[in-house]
Specification:
The chain is an all-alpha fold. It has 11 helices and no strands. The chain has one domain. Helix 1 runs antiparallel to helix 8 (165-194), helix 3 (43-65) packs antiparallel against helix 4 and helix 6 packs antiparallel against helix 7.
Amino acid sequence: MPPVAAVLAAVAAALETVGLGVRLFDVRGALGHLLSMDLPGSLPRLFVASVLAAAAVVAALGAWLRPGRRVWWSAVAASAVGLAAAKAAGDLHVRLVHLFGTGEQAWRGAVVLGIVTAAGLVFLWRLSGNDRRDRRRIVTLLAGYAVAAVGLSLVSTYARITAGPVSAAFATFVEESGEALTAAGLLVAVLIGVLPRLVLPAGDVLRRRDDHLEAAPLAA
């Protein structure tokens, strides 16, 4: 695991664990809001949004450095920007899930949003053409983020309805942790594809043979 991945994962785990404690011990006020797992403006939510925004910036840099894959990296940057904006905006994905039904009918919105997300991932996969070097990692992590944001959000909703506050707290913890870890993984995957020398030592198995050639524009 690249060191930057370990650091991001540790920060994500720490923030979400503290947020779980805040929920279980019913910490209120400004401190409770700041450390909450899922409230708008809280540290865990801002961390995930910032990581996604950083992935978008690096992907945009990749579009500039690698003209041969400009469309692919531009699409990755646009996807990361959209996810970062949705995370920073608050519970946008939850509102979308509940758009077609609330409570026990929330599964309808999850199905619709899941179909739209799957179509977007297929389009992104096809957009990469025959270049398989980065798309597997990036598309897989985007799919993982979608599962956490949509699928696990539905689980959290049912936990709140049927199982009480403690189960809902743990369900939210799993959902938010899944989003945080997949967002961190996405940033690392984009860094490996665009700026591998910053995150991987020479000779690492994740380094491509032509990384030194593709890095020539950056060196110039």
